[in-house]
Amino acid sequence: MEKKKILEIKNLHTYFYTDDAVIKSVDGVDIELEEGSTLGLVGESGSGKSVTALSVMSLLMGTTGKVAEGEILLNGDDILNISEEEKRALRGGRISMIFQEPMTSLNPVMTIGDQLLECIKQHEDISKGEAYAKAQKMLELTGVPRVEKMMKEYPFQLSGGQRQRVMIAMALICEPVVLIADEPTTALDVTIQAQILDLMNTLKGKIGTSILFITHDLGVVAEVCDYVAVMYCGRIVEKGDVYSIFGNTSHPYTKGLLASIPKLGQQVDRLTVIPGNVPNPRYMPEGCKFAPRCTEAFERCFKEEPGFYTIGEGHVSRCWLHAEKAGEV
Amino acid sequence: MANEQIRTENTVNGESAQRNSILEVKDLKIYYPIAGDSFFSKPGYVKAVDGVTFDVKENEVLGIVGESGCGKSTLGRGICQLEKITSGEVILNNTDISSYSRKEMRPIRKSVQMIFQDPYASLNPRMSVFDCIAEPIRIHQLAQSEDELKEKVISLLRKVGLDDYHANRYPHEFSGGQRQRIGIARALAVEPKIIIADEPVSALDVSIQAQVLNLLNDLKEELNLTYIFIAHDLSVVEHISNRIAVMYLGNFVEVGEKGKLYKNPLHPYTQALLSAVPIPDPTIKRERIILEGSIPSATHPPTGCKFHTRCPKCMDICNKEEPQKYEVAPDHYVYCHLYR
Amino acid sequence: MGTQENMLQPGTPGIAIIQEEIKSPTKVMLRKFLKQKNSVIALAFICFLVIISFIGPAVVPFGVNQYDYSAILQGPSSTHWFGTDEFGRDLFSRIVLGTPISLAVGISAVTIGAVTGTVLGLLSGYYRGWLDSVVMRICDTLFAFPGIILAIAIVAILGSGLYNVVIAVAVFSTPTFARIVRSRTMAIKESVFVQAAINLGASDSRILFKHILPGAIPDIIVQYTMSIGTSILTASSLSFLGMGAQPPTPEWGLLLSNGRQYMTTSAIMTIFPGLAIFFTVLSFNTLGDGLRDALDPKLTE
User: What is the ipTM of this complex?
Assistant: First the structure.
């Protein structure tokens, strides 16, 4: 039974054009977000995960970045090759984003209430009174105490956790079909993180939003995501549902990542380590981008980039090691 | 070989109590004065560290874990006298260094060093890596000649896993993980006994974190170091520490060996903290203890036990009296009225 | 021990090990500076001025005080490129010979101001307390006066002459440097690497000279070049008013003052010295702009 694909990113290439080089931040990424699910986009710095999100939201204007190739479909509609007006209508409306640093994403000189009202006004044509009531209700849903008071406060008066709740309220107030969360809990304390993740799950159920959750924290992924896509050097290296990815980890990079994080209750003297560093985007190696750091690499890996090979139902890995075991995808 | 044996013994039997105390901290308080609310009111205080007592044993790793605002970084910096100590004692080699002047601290700096959190800010961008690592050697005159200095710097670079040719480069040419290694080399240059690591891996990518954690572990064994490892990431602290202290709003709430603390957390805050850490295994579903509200202000902390406003097991006495230290099991202490 | 884990061995197939040349902050800055054509031209012009300061006397066609009553108030000609003044002296030669004076006055005044200001700024920014209050209040007082008024006041007290002009300009340049260096000092003092240095046992003087001052140098250099422009203008203004150089010194301001009486008949007597001042000050300001952009930390990695 195929669930509807609410967001489809097809063959996305986002490049940054600088004076001396073209930096291929995202180089051929395919992602499908199923309706009502949470997809975790995992990667370390330089993997291109944030740039992917920015490309979807068309927020690359003003930078040297551009979508060089690819298609992005929201519920079947193209959202890349549309006018700026239409894009603006989408943002905060049908597709919404929350960022890592809530302090810098909230306007410091506007009250919380005003910022929420602004969100509503952009996308809905209702009276101010109705909008205010809606904003208050949304804030209540996020579990913020003393909602009335908070509507009149400024961002600097709130704690990190409270600001992030406000951001979530702002993002969900127009009931978007897709929510992109870019490291929403990385800057928060672990107890607050737990609250926020819980909140996101609850609201997802209530509003029916699908979430593209970007993070580097595999623990968080295991907690909240239904599907996972692992990125390295602008490419997806492994994709699948969360149980397959953790239970049957296939790509050497994913394996390395999982092995290198310390886990509570585990007693090891030394952590298994992925040797080397992420390559400089200006000097990308030939063949598989992970090969120079891969303990299982062989000759073919350094010459040709592998395609996707099926490991299991909906689970693929981009590695020559799996080429023999399965047919090409 | 002998080192490994001792290590295994101690981990298995939990005999850290047998080792000597290399540093003792007694009722340490670090308060920051802040201006009062109005022109006429008395100045208030931010009670960043509000009476902390503990000791650190030779060659152990004491992890101090807590969320933002708990005072763990301030505590670490206070021990090094990078923050002004309001009251209390810091005893190193049987001498209380808490009120030492800058001049008196100079020789002490050779025994206690620090690694900082931000690899991008902790190195002077205008100094080459060589000068950076050579600085402490020059300050304390630990090399008799330029050649000896050069030898020492190169050997330190190698020790942290970098190459000779890196010495002439500048910090901006290195990645976060490499810069952190340079910071470690700089700290090792004075041959310290104790290293206070203040969130050394928090700003690094996951795969680089593992490299640096392994490096710290290897260095500890090779050079017989003692660490105070400060972090907010429980998994990281649990991995590298022998004993862990959990801190909340300026006080320790629980101190114990890592195995025991994890299996049997006593303080409600520790329990909530552990339950909140996401586990990278989707098949494990845990009952999460969600704490109410957020961390109270450090200028007007709650009366009695500071945690009582959020504690799921709060009792009447909790907002009246501050809890004492109770030893619930050998070497496992908790500051909570539940255990009187 | 840690080497294998984190350093790729050269020769690992598939990866290009690029041994990039050492990019010290100075080299990075130079490269950025050279990209700015205007500033490079300005720098070239200034170098040219410096050269003619030295070789001027050997090269000029006429002497500085060479009277020639047969050729007074003449316009530009093949013998007198810039014409002559009321005594028949060749204006071109006088302007050329005035170059070292303007440059010397400008540079020495600003140098004294920069050094004094930097020291005051470093000390007040680092130690704060009463020293900071005193220094800042003095600077505030000096800032309250427009530069030229202050310079006039000082020269009025000390007496005319180029040495006193230098002192006057140095005095009014000092607070600017003190302010800039002080704020930079306070900012750098809070940075983590200074804390690290304190933790390593560094003495105050080591921190001031090895950590803080190098961080303030870019600001100082930019301000220095900008100030030279102002300094030359002020010196010329003072000479114009009769309080600086005295005749027959061919200082440009004095030449301007001289030419004032003959504006209607022999305007070139004011135009050429004026142009000399204009281009010199413009060059220093453009150089300063270029340096500021080259040293802008936001443009570094």
Answer: 0.84
